[in-house]
Write a structure and sequence with these properties.
By secondary structure, the chain is an alpha/beta fold. The chain contains nine helices and nine strands. This is DJ-1/PfpI domain-containing protein.
């Protein structure tokens, strides 16, 4: 069973956080939710409360097949400032394991830690504050995969992002089966079925 760490902080974006966790769990992944600091009670950007499984400090003692970061501001900023997560992300990437980030997090979490230095392309939320950070590698695609790094644009692409993460861990057939159960649009399903040929 593939293991995934989903990092979350106060003011992380609800849709992105929930979509990533939900899709991966539906697909048979073991998901661990971890947050900065010592208080595991987290209040997301629109007021939804969640309780993390553990702190990022505790998670730093573990190994994961993928580390995923939702966006939202200033939630992404809090994740980017966490020393334990930064170390984990750099180690994860250097070991050739999967890293995934959506919305603000590619620019605010991944870029400062050098995770995007060796990708050919990536994407992020459509704001100059974020686009300018990755402008030389910015792709118009909603979900981008490059050198074991998965990035995506925001809440509207969160399920697509989760499905691509699942496809990389459990295979495209499993991801397609989950997508059909979620009743995604035909365009999303077709993209998922053919994405392997493009990446």
């Amino acid at each position: 069973m593939p293991s995934v760490l989903v990092a979350v902080a106060n003011d992380s974006e609800e849709i992105e956080f929930n979509a990533i966790v939900d899709v991966l769990v539906r697909g048979g992944c073991k998901v661990t939710i971890a947050c900065p600091g010592r208080d595991r009670n987290v209040k997301l950007s629109r007021g939804v409360h969640v309780v993390a499984d553990m702190t990022l400090e505790q998670a730093s003692e573990m190994q994961f097949d993928m580390i995923a970061c939702p966006g939202g501001m200033p939630g992404a900023k809090y994740l980017g400032e966490d020393a334990f997560l930064s170390t984990m992300l750099r180690t994860q990437h250097n070991e050739g394991k999967w890293v995934a980030a959506i919305c603000a997090s590619p620019a605010v979490v991944l870029a400062p830690n050098g995770i995007l230095d060796d990708v050919e392309k990536c994407t992020c939320y459509d704001s100059p504050a974020f686009r300018d950070v990755i402008s030389d590698k910015l792709s118009p695609e909603r979900v981008v995969v490059s050198n074991k790094v998965i990035t995506s644009i925001g809440p509207g692409s969160a399920i697509e992002f989760g499905l691509e993460c699942l496809a990389r861990l459990q295979g495209r057939d499993k991801a397609v089966a989950v997508a059909k159960g979620l009743l995604v649009t035909p365009d999303v399903l077709k993209q998922l079925e053919t994405a392997e040929k493009k990446h």
